[in-house]
Amino acid sequence: MEGLSVSDANLVVYIHPSQSKNVSQAILRELSSLLFKYNETFDGVVLAYAVNSLDKQARILSGVHPYFGVRLKANLLLFSPKPNMLLEGKVVKLMRESIHVIVLGFSSAVIVDEDIRDEFKYKSKRGEAKYVSRSHKRHAIKVGTTIRFSVKSLDEEILHISGSLIPAHTGSVSWLDGDGGNPTTESKKRKQPDGETEVQELGIAGGDTCSVNNDQKIKKSKKRRNAE
């Protein structure tokens, strides 16, 4: 899945003198406050962190007295969905008008009917609603299905994603990676000594790594942006 990256960050965490006897715990508390929130500095949602090194010499900075700054290096796992990226999530609600999805267990996404390609037809039988492909009857989307969809926009304040099933390489992950084939893979045939043919699946993976090399004061972003 796209949208995930690891950032090598040089940080300065500001600690109150009352926490000076247990600096490590105070630092972890500050870093934990970043989790599952959009951070403008890193341009993404911090999902996890790992402290690599800690400067044992802290210094009081002018203008922020009596706080003192502790320098550290950390790896941050970031979730930064951008338009046209491909994400995967589990369908939790399905109606004729929309498909509702949970991504990574915390971020909600919705795909409205105008963003569902005509290939899919809505059906409801015996209380079970689903979208079924007109071209491939085994390609179906229902509650519990893990789907791959394209990002249209992200509401950074409430971490809500607007998605699309218009691209041909979107839909049920099990079908795309199984019976239907994955558009992001290619098959390579190779002759074996006994005359049999072996098929190898070569995955094409993509992902950017974001680095933050400047010292930054950690702050909570309240900015809301929609990327269309």
TrEMBL record:
InterPro entries: RNA_pol_Rpb7-like_N_sf (IPR036898), Rpb7-like (IPR045113). One of its GO terms (cellular component) is DNA-directed RNA polymerase complex. Keywords: DNA-directed RNA polymerase, Nucleus, Transcription. One of its GO terms (biological process) is DNA-templated transcription initiation. The keyword Membrane does not apply. Residues 219-228 have a biased composition (Basic residues). It comes from the Eukaryota. Residues 172-228 are annotated as: Disordered. It is found in: Nucleus. Its main location: nucleus. DNA-dependent RNA polymerase which catalyzes the transcription of DNA into RNA using the four ribonucleoside triphosphates as substrates. PANTHER family: DNA-DIRECTED RNA POLYMERASE I SUBUNIT RPA43, DNA-DIRECTED RNA POLYMERASE II, III. This is DNA-directed RNA polymerase subunit. It comes from Manihot esculenta.
